[in-house]
Amino acid sequence: MITHQTPTPRKPERVVLLGARGFIGMAIRKELDARRIPFLPLASADINLAETSAVDKLAAALKATDAVVMLAALTPDRGRDVATLMKNLAMMQHTCAAIKKTGCAHMVYFSSDAVYDSAVSLVSEDTPASPQDLYGAMHYTREIMARSLAKVPPVLVLRPTLIYGLDDTHNSYGPNRFRRAAQKDGEITLFGGGEETRDHLHVDDLAALTVRCLLQRSTGILNAATGISHSYQDLAEIVARQFKNTVEIVKTPRANPVTHRHYDITDTIKAFPDIRFIRLEEGVARVHLEMLEKS
Amino acid sequence: MTKPVLGFAGMTHLGLVSGICAAEKGFKVICFDPDSTRVAPLTRGEIPVSEPGLPDLLARNKERLLFTQDSAMLSVCDVVYVAQDVPTDDQGRSDLRTVDATLEVAFNATRGDAIIVILSQVPPGFTRERQRPGRALHYQVETLIFGRAVERALNPERYIVGCADPAHPLPAAYAAFLGVHGCPILPMRFESAELAKISINMCLVASVSTANTLAELCEKIGADWSEIIPALRLDKRIGQYAYLAAGLGIAGGNLERDLATICNFADEHGSDAGVVRAWIANSRYRRDWTLRTLHRTVLSKLENPVVAVLGLAYKQDTHSTKNSPSLALLAHLAPVRVRVFDPVVPASAAPNPHCHAATSELDACEGADALAIMTPWAQFGKLDPAQIARKLRGRLVLDPYAVLKAATCRAAGLEYHTLGMKS
Predict the structure, then answer these.
(1) In the predicted model, what is the mean pLDDT of residues B221-229?
(2) Which CATH number fits domain B198-286: 3.40.50.720, 2.30.30.40, 3.50.50.60, 3.40.50.2300?
């Protein structure tokens, strides 16, 4: 359950985005622009958070009245090993040290649903974190590092589900990979029969939710999900329907047991009773159109 | 043996109902409370709680009842019950200070041969710690059910009596009072009796949680929980009186207290309370069914919706709103305009800044986009869905307790949602 420190939405003086050139960072920038909220986008080219020198550089860039959104992380496609874990922890260590020096008015830490045990099918904010790999352990550790700053700024931890959108550079199993595969090869390959269910959130919804939390200086832990899960087979069919040509959906022998992930989004509804999410069919269609326009 | 004189110390819900019902059984009863704001209305025949049948009993037995704030009057009593309601906090923890204070008064104000019986709900270990040399002290399990308290007090299923040593017979005056009810009397050691009360409630919660878990599954897969219930009731291992109706979790405060007590004891003694914590989580989850359904059907679709809410009490036939699912819903609908009606609880109890106090059920429905029936008051079941449909602006009816008939609502053009059935 999150708490709004500012019951009536109020624009933050400035938002500092760390990891601003990533897929989610770009979407948040667009949302901040649309709402005319000033922001400072920082990427690794500006300040390399993994380096010790980042502490002073970031501290110099920050103001005590800023809201800091920490998105910067090396994602699993950049490595799942201990070295990647340590780099990610160093990035957070330096960020926390800089915030400790300068202070900030609000911090939003972008975590992941990887903090939950993949065997748990229905997840809420009350579900105990039980990361099963180094990536999940990294996020959970960074959450605790952020919360250890709690006496300085109010901290919100966002734990997003699987995110999709046109500009996603990752090619993980889901809408983005299915779309690319369908376009390139005319077929979508499923693990097994695609029985697993997952909750897919459009990146624009995640950006909008983030900005609403910034406007109300929300604190606590919030999962970012739609509350509706679909099987990968249903998802593949939705993606396939976007193409004029027939897209074949190929099933393969199952290598791993079926797992499901559903979200109980009651806490999100309590925090934002009027919140609405883009339906998966609508979101996939929107991304498809954007892809066509871009090409 | 002449009929013993009984005393009831603490004129809150439990003591009041128990005292008046004892008078109905033909006993002279001293009803004591140190608080004049409780005693004065009772002397005028005004009852502060809503319990069917209680006003009639009070009127019929006023010759045998004496309401007083003078503890010295307890000196005429042969048996004195300590019967204060025990308040709980948000975590279900009991505040036992009032019970202790009342027990102290009872020990001091009664004769040395008078029997003191703790009727208030106390945790295991409480009674034995409070024994006094030379004084007879017992603990008796109360099984008050809000809205059915009179019926339960007049015709108890059994008496569970906690004793220092259950091998000793009960004192004659106490046994005489219990005996007139014609039900089994089960003496046992203090700790067993104190835990027996909690055990009863744990079994009820287990049934409720099972029903709610399966009802939700019914909603997803197209089964109908109301069709399954009769099959379960005919199973002798489950029984016709089992708590099988789907609901919005546990409310009222008493069951929550017992859940908290078990978790605390298990933590302290290192026993497994995982299933109890799962019941608590399930209860919290099901309580928000209406909010989730409203969000899916109205809040995420309409700008500035209006929601009609019928019922504020945590259940029918009571004024109590402790842990009421309705109030929880209204708190989370704070930005939404709501129109509220309850036959007993005033709309001012609703924690919502945009609340309109409706004068009737249909007034609440006037112009609303959705109707949520949050307390299963019998009078709500008499509403005509066609009239509701005419009053509503939208079509949506959320009726978790199924006080209306699904088919009649759908025939009236309403979109009907209830627990345990796919909509």
Answers:
(1) 96
(2) 3.40.50.720
